[in-house]
């Protein structure tokens, strides 16, 4: 699915970013799934779980936050730190370019053939986008309304230590709800397959209580969204996911059907 270089580079910069930010640091997306399932996955399969190409960071912002408080907030401070680490804004995210052969950062003005360029993205994700966020930060980030549960309810978060830093992770159930909401809208096939792998692995390899999974999910998403998600998954998607996580198509389908 992803090249070893891409995952290795993403992990390298994940460590650099985490070591540069103030604790606790909320990790979302593929790396959050990795930290939730990797121990059990590695015990079962003798290899690490799938990594991620991107780094997703989560922040809590009040809709009515004043401009002065927004400027002092952890999200703006973190964006400023990322810029000092030479990540540049691009649309709704930040990025830097890395040479796939030398593994060094590509400098401003350096001419490199496109097939040697790996864009290392950091996505800043917040639960609420305040009206003046773009004016202060220079761009509008991704919004994820479910993220508020991480900061408002201990039931939906866990604190772990990685790279000698405290990380705030969404609970497996909350990550699963996020995957259910995002999966049908994936325009890139590899991201859709990764979502399927993540959803299966969160059910199979994390601490999720499978007997109560549907009750818990309906606190976070809707039956309609669950059904849309499951209907959007094709046999080809399942076959591609099967090749990545070493579980049969039938087994993946059976486990995902627990969501019905």
How many helices? 12
Rough outline:
globular
The mean pLDDT is 93
The radius of gyration over CA amounts to 18 Å
Total domain units: 2
Which residues form runs of ≥5 with pLDDT under 50?
A: none
- How much of the sequence is in beta strands? 15-25%
Kindly name the structural category. Answer: alpha/beta
Largest sheet: 8 strands, mixed
Number of strands: 8
Q: Fraction of residues in helices?
A: 40-55%
- End-to-end distance: 27 Å
In terms of quaternary structure, the protein is single chain
Order of helices and strands: HEHEHHEEEHEHEEHHHHHH
Structure description:
- This protein has about 260 residues and is an alpha/beta fold.
- It folds into two domains: about 1-170, no CATH class; about 170-260, no CATH class.
- Helices cover about 45% and strands about 15% of the residues.
- The chain has helices spanning about 5-20, 30-45, 65-70, 75-85, 135, 150, 170-180, 190-205, 215, 225-230, 235-245, 250-255, and strands at about 25-30, 55-60, 90, 95-100, 115-125, 140-145, 155-160, 165-170.
- Strands 1, 2, 3, 4, 5, 6, 7 and 8 form an eight-stranded mixed sheet that branches.
- A hairpin with a 2-residue loop joins strand 7 and strand 8.
- It starts with a helix and ends with a helix.
- The model has no long low-confidence stretch (mean pLDDT about 95).
């Amino acid at each position: 699915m992803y090249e070893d270089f891409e995952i290795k580079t993403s992990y390298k910069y994940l460590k650099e970013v985490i070591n540069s930010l103030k604790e606790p640091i909320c990790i979302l997306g593929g790396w959050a799934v990795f930290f939730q399932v990797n121990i059990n996955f590695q015990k079962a399969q003798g290899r690490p779980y799938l990594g991620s190409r991107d780094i997703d960071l989560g922040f809590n912002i009040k809709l009515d936050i004043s401009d002065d408080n927004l400027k002092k907030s952890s999200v703006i401070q973190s964006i400023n730190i990322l810029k000092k680490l030479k990540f540049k804004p691009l649309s709704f995210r930040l990025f830097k370019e890395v040479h796939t052969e030398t593994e060094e950062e590509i400098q401003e003005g350096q001419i490199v053939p496109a097939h040697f360029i790996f864009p290392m993205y950091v996505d800043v994700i917040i639960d609420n986008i305040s009206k003046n966020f773009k004016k202060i930060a220079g761009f509008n980030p991704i919004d994820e309304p479910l993220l508020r549960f991480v900061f408002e309810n201990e039931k939906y978060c866990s604190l772990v230590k990685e790279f000698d830093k405290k990380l705030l992770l969404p609970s497996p159930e909350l990550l699963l709800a996020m995957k259910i909401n995002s999966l049908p809208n994936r325009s890139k096939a590899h991201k859709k397959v990764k979502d399927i792998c993540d959803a299966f692995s969160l059910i199979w390899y994390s601490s999720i209580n499978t007997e109560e999974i549907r009750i818990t999910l309906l606190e976070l998403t809707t039956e309609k969204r669950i059904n849309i998600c499951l209907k959007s998954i094709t046999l080809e998607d399942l076959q591609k996911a099967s090749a990545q996580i070493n579980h049969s198509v039938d087994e993946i389908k059976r486990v995902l059907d627990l969501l019905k």
